[in-house]
Input
Amino acid sequence: MGSGWVIAVRDEATAAADTRDRFEAVFRARYGELYSLSYRLLGDHGEAEDVVQETFLKLDGQPVLGRPVEEVAAWLRRVCLNATYNRLRGRRRATARLDRAGRLERADEEADAGGGPLLDVLRAEQQRAVRQALASLPQRQRACLLLRHAGFSYAEIAATLDLAVGSVGVLLARGERAFRDAYLDRNDADPGADDALP
Output
């Protein structure tokens, strides 16, 4: 065995270490935003964590890891949204999902004594109404709204959803209009829904 073989093995080991370091850095930098994005749709802490873990498992060994940071972030958001949508489609009934999400959020808020049990119930109802209205939107509009309200720029949304930047504003406007209509339709069916929070 010549010195060329030793150098090749050393170079391969160095490249593997660099890839591992890059993966760890991306994981630390992006875990929170992906978790937040998934949780906004699922409303379940455990499922959101599972989706983010699935997302990072898919990243491991992918050539995209060597791309610029913005491209890796857009790839991760796209995979995370798709995995989240798959979770939503896999559930048997949308009502069971909404009830479980409302119970979990209410349990999280019980530690906060402000307002008492009645306010907790009213908040849970309002959150359920928002989730129902959001679930009624077309997938791209829903994703666009979630990304924008999570603080992403038009360019980041465009990269994530594989859209032209100019299309993001149009999609957002349509999504906001459809969301408002769906939310108001639900409130018209439930006259006390507008009074959910002071």
About this structure: The chain has two domains: 1-104, 109-198. DSSP finds eight helices and no strands in the chain.
